[in-house]
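Cross-posted from the bioinformatics board.
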Amino acid sequence: MPGGFGKGSVWCHGRFRGYGYRMTVSRQAILDVLNTTVKHLSAEDIYHEVHKIHPSSGMSTVYRTLELLSRLKLVFKFDFGDGRARYELNKRLENKEYHHHHLVCINCQRVIDYTDFIEDEVELLKKTEKGLSKKYNFKIMRHILQFYGLCNRCEEKGKE
Amino acid sequence: MPGGFGKGSVWCHGRFRGYGYRMTVSRQAILDVLNTTVKHLSAEDIYHEVHKIHPSSGMSTVYRTLELLSRLKLVFKFDFGDGRARYELNKRLENKEYHHHHLVCINCQRVIDYTDFIEDEVELLKKTEKGLSKKYNFKIMRHILQFYGLCNRCEEKGKE
DNA sequence: TTGAGAGTGGGAATCATTATCAATAAGGAG
DNA sequence: CTCCTTATTGATAATGATTCCCACTCTCAA
């Protein structure tokens, strides 16, 4: 993936402009990083990646852009309880192929994504969403399902 | 609920002592607050409540105690993505009567607990937990299920 | 090409949470 | 009950993530 901005971010231009925002080099770089990376990145991760492409971009811009993207519903902000937020493209989350839930280790903070068992879960969640939406008059846009516990490494250590 | 420390925290004494920790006035007060309050409290909320009972307790003690209680698996730390952690007694979470999931408004951060629809969800989640535990060799202790979206108030405002 | 104003970088400010440390108090031994 | 060890505490400093501020820069419609 040498240098340039992939087509991945092009689809955002319209969305940006539609709301009166401008597409800038930094924003493109940030979108590109989000597009070409698999994991849930922290703001700092993103900053580092963006820095490789466009060294003059600053941390503030990363935060500002992520906030903007959040507001535009283009990215989703996760919280695994380790004191820093993670970000992921909604496009990716909505994609059946990428949609996943999490196993979070409460000891070492390791996060495992899983996509197995998802089918049944998602089906039930959809049903629940409908019920909740109606009852609480709440427009549900996304969900988080996380299981907390001890990963194999930490479970072993605990026994010593 | 006038003044004194309810019986609620007594059951913890043994647990504390068993691990070589001491039961102190501050810790009792913190446990008592957690015991007698319904909502997910932030550290600061807890500090304020504790302050009413035992004004000389400091913030550090609250954080330290919550950390300890977390380690002892007596409380669970939640994260709703608003930059501050919330705490709730595990005892309460395990209690079928209290177990709930969350609706989180991404605009005003309001959190709605719901207990409806829980039955089916929990049943499926249990099944999933089993499968995941085995496959990933992960000891699951708790789960979080949160739906994110817009509450009625914010949805309305958005339309204006 | 140009001007209005959106967007920027970097450093200061804020906020929640942690670490430090001398002083205090819990609780077992005597 | 008193003493002594040492876990615990409160105040405050330190940290780390995130947000704010502001003079300068760049985008893009006209």
